[in-house]
Amino acid sequence: MKLRKLNIVLFIALIVIISATWMLRRDFTERNDEFLPGMVESVPFDAFAPNPNFTDGKTLQSPLHGTLSRTAMSIHYTATPDDALRAGKELINPLKDGQPADVERGQKVFASFCQPCHGIGSKGDGLLVQHGFPPPPSLLTPKALSMNDGQMFHIVTFGQGNMPSLASQIAPLDRWRAVLYVRTLQRQAATLSQAPTP
């Protein structure tokens, strides 16, 4: 008897649900009802809407003269060899202390952007070179070893020879980290070359 009553209640509930679903079916030609309309109609001013709170009447304000975003760097150089030398004298790597996290990040940046041409050990024998791309200079030569960090940063930023500018792909701090990692590779190569042969 109890099972029969339960079946009747469930059958009635099913009929109610089917009826409610049919009666409340969506009309795709009309907009949906809005629940919490404040999520749709934003209270703040839109970027290009007039705004009486500012003297020029605009919501979107220009940055103050001379301001830079946190990640931007003011680099007053051009893509010339002379400016690369000047950058070598004027720019100092802000990550000179070589924290392990910075070197590790520099290794990832190097692997993504430099290694295809320069190779794992930065000898200029990367995968692209093995498939016909003109080889870049080794970063272990005396010329590369004598470069200042700022000059390397300039080359990564503006490019040189067949190497394109990587400024749009690599953030400034990551460029410094890549230079830091190259210095690590150079030190490792120097240590191996000075090791006594058995």
How do the helices and strands line up, and which of them pair or pack?
Layout: H1 2-23, H2 81-90, H3 100-118, H4 127-130, H5 142-146, H6 149-158, H7 172-194
Helix pairs in contact: 2-6, 3-7, 6-7
Could you write a compact summary of the structure shown?
It contains seven helices and no strands. With 198 residues, the chain is mainly alpha-helical.
CA radius of gyration is: 31 Å
Q: Please trace the helix and strand order, writing H or E for each element.
A: HHHHHHH
Low-confidence stretches: none
DSSP summary, beta strand count: 0
* Tally of contiguous helical segments: 7
Report on the structure:
It is elongated, with a radius of gyration of 31 Å. It has a domain at 97-193: Cytochrome Bc1 Complex, Chain D, domain 2 (Orthogonal Bundle). With 198 residues, it is an all-alpha fold. The protein contains 7 helices and no strands. α2 packs across α6, α3 crosses α7 (172-194) and α6 packs across α7 (172-194). The mean pLDDT is 86. The protein has helices at 2-23, 81-90, 100-118, 127-130, 142-146, 149-158, 172-194.
List keywords for this structure.
198 residues; mainly alpha; 7 helices; single chain; Cytochrome Bc1 Complex, Chain D, domain 2
